[in-house]
Amino acid sequence: xxxxxxxxxxxxxxxxxxxxxxxxxxxxxxxxxxxxxxxxxxxxxxxxxxxxxxxxxxxxxxxxxxxxxxxxxxxxxxxxxxxxxxxxxx
Length: 90
Fold this sequence. Notes:
Largest sheet: 5 strands, antiparallel
Distance between the termini: 21 Å
Radius of gyration: 13 Å
Strand content: 25-35%
Shape: globular
Order of helices and strands: EEEEEH
Helix content: 10-25%
Number of domains: 1
Number of helices: 1
């Protein structure tokens, strides 16, 4: 079973979410971690080409709205992923 994100902490950091824009270097991107699909909003940690980003999918009435963070080093993305799961960022 995949994890659920914790409730937001009062002093959480807001991530900048953008429309998906696939760079050539990230053609072979793949999710390596994700939250449970039982919630309306699902998050994924995506890695490709030595870089990583977080993807947010909001499931709305049969449609999917997808946003992503900017690319970052994999180590930074893993720290951001942990913060997301613990409610310290969203």
